[in-house]
Amino acid sequence: MRIAILTSGGDAPGMNATIRAVVRTCIFEGIEVYGIMGGYEGLIDAKFEKLIEASVADIIQRGGTILSTTRSERFQTDEGFEKALNSLKIFEIDALIVLGGDGSLRGAKKLCEAGINVVGIPCSIDNDMGYTDYTIGFMTAVRTVTEAISNIRDTTEAHGRANVVEVMGRECGDIALFSGVSSGAESIIVPEFPMNINEIAEKALVGKNRGKRHHIIIMAEGCGSAFEFAKEFEKLTGIDTRVTVLGYIQRGGAPSIFDRILASEFGYHAVYFAKDKKSGALGSVKGKIIMESFEDVFNIKKKFRQDLLEILKTVSI
Question: Are 29 and 95 in contact (CB under 8 A)?
Answer without folding.
Answer: no
